[in-house]
């Protein structure tokens, strides 16, 4: 799993307690093989077929699709946990927020919620008792979804296996641990409008805007945040910093954004987590796996059309890198990186990403690159591209100086241009990622204790 | 996805496997039955920052060999791979240090050897049939060799012999013409010493031998380089990559 | 004692190639499947990444990915008059363990057996007379090449095999192996580029009138996406295939080709560090009820299952059959019984070639990077008057230049000292080896049974291997090594060195991990353990996969054939067995 914990937004996630409400009877579930050896996997839950014998089959199918569009799974499952049972800790700048159980369990999930209560949570960020949820739960985006769409999500969530599980308590300092504090935040930052279509734009553009700014909540990561964790104004999709990683610029910037990407490039990336230019690792991996790969191509193209319309962020000039760092970096690259990305950085199409003219590498903040080299990453998958091709961790192999040099080299080669990476940046990140010691695997029995 | 597995929970004592007959008292092993049981379901496990990194060695000085054993090892490996201008000798390549760390570690303990009895001698085709693990074999064999040198050759030790006499002795062990006391199979020990010496000479410097990658330079092996795609069809040309170890080469750090 | 688990439709014992194939096939058919693997989980980026996979000491010589003999080994001897002793360290063959097993550290050599290889007995009797096989216990397989062809193809599609067809639907193709059985389809990807050594070999072979072609390989010549959607990259010729995991997803393995697809299925579960102790049978021994296993925490479980698939290595499958009382053990004295019968191996020799003026760069290599001739394999040539059956392919092969293992020095060079060092320095870049990969015919005294003395950590008897090469194989190997020497000389080297197959089989030097037989297939229960669908004649809900089914071993690497047999078995299970569980072939 990607360790770049999809730290959606700023504040903490609402821990939802709930009761009541009945899911559909199990007999209405699609048949699974006899002798089920284990629980249904997240992917199969998100892709299982509902047959027409179910009275609200059409609504449930729509809800299943929208749960994917909203990427609910990525956050509402924890390591070793059941789908939608929550319990994943989100490291926010304000503390750890645990995602809630949204299975239909009446005591610990949302089985007792009415559709009105569910709508209020999605639209206003209030739980079933009217308490504020923390906006780590992305209601500032979800509120742009229509009532019909939210009702469909509600209907689908009623069909998933109920799990009795109470997530841990949030770890928030005073006064953030008082939910009323969120009320002030809502007053300051919550958009009072539901989604408004722009009649001057195409239906496709408007559909893209609805998905991106609504359920898709892309700005949750890709728009920079102020100190209270709200979007910085006029910087939509200029790229954000989350946890110890980077959500890159999605504007038309030619170097750091999607300026060089075609509609097809974006749609393919969202469909399979890989295209001729890039691979979706780190925080984006789960988004591909549990969200965009499960959407239809028309919606992915609509998202691409909308993103391509975003005005370019300002380009920040980088001074020429140190020639010694470049020379050392080139040596390290040839020996340690060329096995996949090849000697001239061309990579292998849709398997190992090329490194030239790369937006991710040229982000102003090098945290994303250094994080990849230190920790490695597993890319997102789709039903038709199931290989979670992974970049290995180099934390055990390269010193902080070597990681800084090779990062500087790849950020300034093959058309790339970006600020040097300093040794102290890497040292700090290594510490934050807890990679000062080697993390061995179950295979590592030949190491002395 | 993959949250089912925590790859950090490694190292599991299998000594708890109950009721086993003739079991080697097992501590930690790679290979199998050495890690905790895992149930993998739903996705390909992955945890960032993890690597089955090579178990390199550190420090200096000897932790396994005694002073007299060091004298033997330096003399013997210096004859197996002598130093000259063509390339480093085994001593110059730091092979004695490599051997010391190998014998002090899992290899010395025979972690992958089956050492249970009974121990009949067997045929040459049946291979290694000693009850000793490599560390025990080195210890016992070196003592026997020095005893032999003293008792039959009138020398204080193997190391005190002249180089030609050392070569003669080693050839005798290799061919089986020299037999050692104390149920030590000299031929078997020689084969192991030669093999381990070549291992220390040619393995990655992370294991303590192959100092400055001198053995790789001598033969022209680029080491841990992984991509020769551009050179596959360039028949007969010299490949320009300088040797590199897992932890790099001078070009990685030159200012 | 043992905790009884929830029943499943099928339990897989071992998770290498055949486990992966059966898991995928049976899960796609909707069955619930649990795979029990006695070794650990391992995967590309964490356990054999390009940053450390190329470690000759750790993998080749310290056996980091192989079976740990301290827990379990087998006993060995050359003949029934000897006392079998434990194989105390790995040598002749390198047993796999862990997820992917040998499929992780194989070379990726993907061969089909010849059509006549499936009729070793009847074909040779017909062409060379009854005497030609009189001293051997060779048999026909009970299956034909044509029956297996679609399943060979399935494995090629899975692996993305790089190669050039020599026989497409009966039409001989230039550049391929003209001796091969007809293929329905061209290889999924083109052949790998050949380095200098194999290129020189190919030229010399053509000049001698042989028919050189690129070795078919599971090392990818270009990126490939298989029918399951799993992706591989192109090989970078790092020279660390066999004994090593591939660090950049360019070698076909269960990890690269099957697991990404299979693991996301709800009806598949993989349990590691779980060793199956025995197959449990009903009191009348007509049916298996499941398997008993112990995990590395020492906990014992009974896993009930409708079907038991033995998908471990050949030696473990045979041992489990013997330990579980499935089928009648073979008795070499009477020739009766079948379990353990016809153990065979591979008869290997080589010729080293040394140049003064040619830089071979042996470190640029891949597991199956070779130019090959098949002119002297199987019955591709007239054996009249030669006194043996079978043959070998001869490959000008450069799998890598790993210096502890693969420095060749001329005939007469001592193994150490200055002379050795100078020879190593002089010849390393300028030499390579021709591999002679010979068949191994089964014989009455070569077999597997349970050892009377030695036991594993669970207290179970070890497997006992009684084996030596037959006069047939020695003659074959000598003849083929001479053919290889002709080719070597035709390359115009300074000198060559012949490494003949001399003397009895020894466990000491590495030869090849191609152990076969012991759970052989055939057309009736009197001569075989399993039918053509790898189904036990005695306990029809037990299927035994792998090279144990080979009645004798052909002159090729065994993986593709055992994969094809697994697909063939899965096909019969899906189309026939599930509808009417019971014997698929009437005894």
Class based on secondary structure composition and strand pairing of chain B: mainly alpha
| Beta content of chain A | under 5%
Structural class of chain A: mainly alpha
Distance N terminus to C terminus of chain B? 44 Å
Spatial ordering of strands, largest sheet of chain A:
1-2
Count the strands of chain B? 1
Global mean pLDDT of chain A: 89
Task: Please give the oligomerization state of what you see.
Answer: heterotrimer
Q: From N to C, what is the helix and strand string of chain A?
A: HHHEEHHHHHHEEHHHHHEEHH
Please describe the biggest sheet of chain A, giving its number of strands, its sense, and whether it closes into a barrel.
2 strands, antiparallel
Poorly predicted tracts of residues of chain B: 1-29
Biggest interface reads:
B-C, 100 and 109 residues
The geometry of chain B reads as globular
Element order of chain B: H for helix, E for strand: EHHHHHH
The biggest beta sheet of chain B reads: none
Morphology call of chain A: globular
Please estimate the helix content of chain A. 25-40%
Beta strands of chain A, count:
6
What is the alpha-carbon Rg of chain A in Å? 22 Å
Q: What does this 3D model show about the protein?
A:
The complex is a heterotrimer of chains A (449), B (255) and C (587). Chain A has helices at residues 42-47, 57-69, 72-75, 115-124, 139-142, 147-157, 181-189, 203-213, 219-222, 263-272, 284-290, 297-308, 323-341, 367-375, 400-411, 423-432, and strands spanning 89-92, 95-98, 240-242, 245-247, 377-378, 390-391. Chain A is mostly helical and 449 residues long. In chain A, strands 1-2 form a two-stranded antiparallel sheet. Chain A has a two-stranded antiparallel sheet with strand order 3-4. In chain A, strands 5-6 form a two-stranded antiparallel ribbon. In chain A, a hairpin with a 2-residue loop joins β3 and β4 (245-247). Chain A is globular. The two termini of chain A are 27 Å apart. Chain B is mostly helical. Chain B is built from 6 helices and 1 strand. The longest helix of chain B is centred in the middle third of the chain and has 20 residues, at 134-153. The relative contact order of chain B is 0.12. In chain C, α6 (145-159) crosses α13 (559-577). Chain C is of the alpha/beta class and 587 residues long. In chain C, a hairpin with a 5-residue loop joins β19 (447-455) and β20. Chain C contains 13 helices and 22 strands. Classes of the chains: A mainly alpha (449), B mainly alpha (255), C alpha/beta (587). Chains in contact: A-B, A-C, B-C. The interface between B and C is large, with 100 and 109 residues.
């Amino acid at each position: 799993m990607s360790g770049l914990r999809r730290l959606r937004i700023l504040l903490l996630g609402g821990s939802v307690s709930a009761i009541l409400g009945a899911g559909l009877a199990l007999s209405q579930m699609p048949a699974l093989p006899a002798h089920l050896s284990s629980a249904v996997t997240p992917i199969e839950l998100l892709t299982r077929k509902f047959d027409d014998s179910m009275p609200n089959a059409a609504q449930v199918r729509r809800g299943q699709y929208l749960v994917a569009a909203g990427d609910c799974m990525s956050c509402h499952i924890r390591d070793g946990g059941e789908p939608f049972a929550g319990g994943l800790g989100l490291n926010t700048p304000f503390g750890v927020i645990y995602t809630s159980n949204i299975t239909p369990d009446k005591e610990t999930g949302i089985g007792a919620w009415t559709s009105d209560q569910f709508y209020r949570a999605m639209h206003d960020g209030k739980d079933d008792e009217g308490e504020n949820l923390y906006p780590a739960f992305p209601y500032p985006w979800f509120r742009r979804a229509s009532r019909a769409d939210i009702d469909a999500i509600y209907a689908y969530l009623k069909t998933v296996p109920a799990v009795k599980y109470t997530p841990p308590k949030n770890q928030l300092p005073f006064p953030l641990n008082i939910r009323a504090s969120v009320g002030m935040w809502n007053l300051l930052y919550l958009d009072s409008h539901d989604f408004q279509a722009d009649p001057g734009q195409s239906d496709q553009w408007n559909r893209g805007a609805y998905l991106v700014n609504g359920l898709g909540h892309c700005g949750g990561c890709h728009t920079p945040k102020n100190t209270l964790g709200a979007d910085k104004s006029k910087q939509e999709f200029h790229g954000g910093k989350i946890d110890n990683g980077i959500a890159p610029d999605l504007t038309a910037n030619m170097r750091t954004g999607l300026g060089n990407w075609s509609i097809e490039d974006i749609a393919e990336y969202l469909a399979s987590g890989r295209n001729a230019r890039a691979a979706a690792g780190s925080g984006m991996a789960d988004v591909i796996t549990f969200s965009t790969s499960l959407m239809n191509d028309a919606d992915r193209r609509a998202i691409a059309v909308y993103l391509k319309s975003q005005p370019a962020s300002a380009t920040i000039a980088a001074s020429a890198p140190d020639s010694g760092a470049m020379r050392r970096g080139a040596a390290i690259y040839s020996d340690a990186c060329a096995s996949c990305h090849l000697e001239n950085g061309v990579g292998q199409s849709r398997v190992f990403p090329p490194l030239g003219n790369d937006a991710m590498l040229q982000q102003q903040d090098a945290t994303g690159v250094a994080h990849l080299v230190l920790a490695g990453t597993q890319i997102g998958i789709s039903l038709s591209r199931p290989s979670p091709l992974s970049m290995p961790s180099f934390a055990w192999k390269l010193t902080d100086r070597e990681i800084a040099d090779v990062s500087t080299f790849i950020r300034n080669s093959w058309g790339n241009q970006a600020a040097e990476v300093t040794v102290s940046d890497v040292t700090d990140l290594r510490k934050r990622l807890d990679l000062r010691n080697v993390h061995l695997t179950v295979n590592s029995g030949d190491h002395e204790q | 996805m993959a949250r089912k597995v925590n790859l950090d929970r490694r190292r599991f004592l299998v000594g708890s496997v109950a009721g086993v007959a003739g079991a080697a008292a097992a501590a930690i092993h790679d290979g199998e039955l050495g890690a905790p049981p895992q149930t993998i379901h739903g996705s390909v496990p992955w945890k960032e920052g993890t690597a089955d990194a090579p178990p390199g060695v550190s420090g200096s000085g000897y932790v396994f060999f005694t002073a007299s054993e060091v004298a033997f090892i330096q003399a013997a490996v210096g004859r197996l791979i002598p130093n000259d201008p063509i390339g480093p000798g085994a001593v110059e390549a730091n092979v004695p240090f490599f051997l010391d760390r190998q014998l002090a570690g899992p290899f010395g303990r025979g972690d992958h050897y089956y050492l249970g009895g009974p121990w009949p001698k067997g045929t040459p085709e049946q291979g290694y049939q000693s009850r000793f693990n490599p560390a025990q074999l080195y210890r016992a064999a070196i003592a026997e060799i020095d005893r032999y040198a003293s008792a039959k050759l009138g020398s204080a030790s193997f190391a005190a012999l002249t180089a030609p006499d050392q070569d003669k002795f080693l050839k005798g062990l290799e061919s089986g013409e020299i037999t050692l006391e104390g149920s030590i199979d000299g031929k078997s020990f020689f084969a192991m010493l030669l093999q381990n010496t070549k291992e220390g000479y040619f393995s990655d410097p992370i294991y303590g031998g192959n100092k400055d990658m001198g053995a790789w330079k001598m033969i022209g092996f680029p080491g841990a380089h992984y991509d020769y795609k551009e050179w596959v069809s360039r028949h007969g040309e010299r490949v320009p990559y300088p040797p590199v170890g897992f932890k790099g080469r001078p070009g990685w750090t030159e200012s | 004692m043992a905790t009884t688990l929830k029943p499943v439709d099928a339990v897989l014992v071992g998770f290498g190639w055949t486990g992966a194939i059966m898991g995928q096939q049976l899960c796609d058919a909707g069955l619930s499947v649990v795979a029990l693997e006695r070794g650990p989980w391992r995967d590309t980026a964490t356990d054999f990444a390009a940053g450390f996979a190329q470690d000759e000491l750790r993998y080749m010589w310290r056996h980091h990915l192989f079976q740990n003999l301290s827990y379990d080994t087998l006993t060995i001897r050359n003949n029934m008059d000897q006392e079998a002793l434990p194989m105390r360290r790995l040598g002749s063959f390198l047993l796999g363990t862990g997820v992917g097993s040998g499929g992780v550290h194989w070379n990726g050599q993907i061969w089909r057996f010849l059509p006549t290889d499936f009729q070793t007995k009847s074909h040779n009797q017909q062409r060379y007379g009854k005497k030609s096989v009189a001293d051997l216990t060779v048999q026909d397989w009970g299956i034909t090449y044509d029956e297996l062809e679609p399943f060979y193809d399935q494995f090629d599609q899975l692996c993305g095999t790089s190669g050039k067809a020599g026989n497409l639907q009966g039409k001989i193709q230039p550049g391929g192996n003209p001796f091969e059985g007809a293929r329905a389809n061209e290889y999924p990807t083109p052949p790998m580029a050949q380095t200098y050594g194999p290129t020189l070999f190919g030229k010399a072979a053509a000049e001698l009138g042989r028919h050189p072609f690129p070795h078919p390989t599971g090392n990818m010549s270009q990126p490939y996406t298989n029918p399951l959607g799993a992706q591989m990259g192109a090989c970078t010729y790092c020279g660390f295939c066999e004994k090593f995991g591939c660090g950049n997803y360019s070698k076909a393995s269960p990890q690269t080709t099957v697991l990404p697809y299979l693991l996301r299925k709800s009806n598949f579960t993989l349990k590691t560090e779980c060793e199956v102790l025995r197959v449990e049978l009903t009191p009348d021994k007509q049916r298996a009820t499941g398997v008993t296993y112990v995990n590395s925490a020492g906990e014992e479980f009974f896993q009930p299952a409708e079907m038991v698939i033995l998908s471990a290595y050949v030696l473990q499958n045979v041992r489990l059959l013997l330990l579980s009382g499935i089928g009648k053990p073979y008795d070499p004295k009477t020739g009766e019984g079948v379990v353990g019968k016809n153990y065979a191996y591979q008869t290997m020799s080589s010729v080293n070639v040394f140049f003064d003026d040619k830089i071979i760069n042996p470190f640029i290599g891949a597991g199956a990077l070779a130019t090959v001739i098949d002119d002297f394999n199987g019955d591709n040539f007239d054996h009249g008057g030669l006194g043996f059956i079978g043959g070998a392919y001869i490959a000008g092969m450069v799998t890598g230049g790993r210096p502890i293992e693969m420095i060749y020095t001329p005939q007469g060079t001592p193994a150490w000292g200055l002379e050795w060092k100078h020879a190593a320095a002089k010849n390393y870049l300028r030499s390579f080896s021709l591999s002679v990969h010979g068949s191994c015919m089964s014989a009455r005294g070569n077999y597997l049974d349970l050892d009377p003395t030695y036991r594993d950590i669970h207290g179970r008897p070890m497997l006992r291997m009684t084996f030596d090469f037959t006069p047939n194989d020695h003659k074959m190997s000598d003849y083929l090594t001479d053919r290889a020497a002709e080719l070597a000389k035709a390359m115009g080297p300074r000198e060559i060195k012949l490494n003949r197959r001399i003397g009895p089989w020894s466990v000491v030097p590495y030869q090849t991990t191609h152990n076969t037989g012991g759970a052989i297939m055939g057309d009736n229960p009197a001569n075989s353990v399993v039918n053509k669908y790898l189904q036990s004649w005695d306990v029809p809900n037990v299927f035994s996969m792998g090279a144990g089914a080979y009645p004798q071993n052909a002159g090729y690497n065994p993986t593709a054939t055992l994969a094809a047999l697994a697909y063939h078995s899965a096909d019969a299970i899906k189309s026939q067995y599930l509808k009417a569980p019971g014997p698929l072939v009437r005894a």
